[in-house]
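Pasting as-is:
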Amino acid sequence: MIKPSPEIEAIVRRMSDTIRSHEVADLPHYFSNDEAVLYVGTAEDETWRGQILRDGISAHLAEVPDFTEEDVEIEAWEHGDVGWAFRQTTYRFADTGVSGKHRISFVFVMEQGRWKVIQHHISNPTSNLDKMGVEHRAFRDLLAAAEDEQLVVGLEGLSSIMFTDIANSTALAEAVGDRIWHGVLAEHLTAAEEIITLHGGRLVKSLGDGTMSAFPSARGAMSAALALQDSTVSQASEPPLSIRIGIHTGEVIATDDDYFGVVVNKAARIAASARPDETRVSDATRLMAGNAPDFGFSNRSEIPLKGLEGSHAVHVLEKQA
């Protein structure tokens, strides 16, 4: 059965982090030992196979100058001993100011209990009109037709969106290895979904080592957050985990399987601003709690949130004694 693969997603994320930080010495260990292993880059001569690839990949990627990335998207899947992933990002090189998109695909095979890359391909989008004088329209027309029928899209009224994220997940995964980390992560995500559902929420999607969920009430979201923090702290398995949680309340756009809008973006940014073992909520979520005796709030602060104008009031959520 084909299923999402948080383990492969985490591996892809770590590979990308090593390149961006120039800590590339261990990159050969990510690739298969089979002679069929293949790397295809964006330049005309960037095609390598087998031992040449394993011998040269660290030096090749060490030559990449400093760059930053935004709008990173990763999806990963597995089926038996085969897996694959797709990573898309917007890059900008510090020295030249050149920016653009990278689209990167990976094919994985299982070798001695570990996922290894058997094929790795990087591309930059190029207009078909510029390349061959034809602009493909088949998929564009298909998408336009789907948009005309628009599946159950509308304002959902007030919803509380909650994001969770495991702090220091890259370091933890490297310490215990991908196979053990996959088990720890699966256990954590299963427990998180149970808690979210128990408190009236809906797990919208898992995001590698985190989650996005939606609640019809702010109180339900905050109760779930407190329960998640308690559950994570008391988790018996190793390594011990710490999570960051962010919640924001407002009107969202909903489809059958996802939520969109500024509320979603703000909740994600609030979660990113939290410290390990900390839950932060927006001013709007705080107001929705009213005088509920189960919740305490401290450390009100005005902070900037990436991609959102101005400063934003956030509070640390605490369980009332």
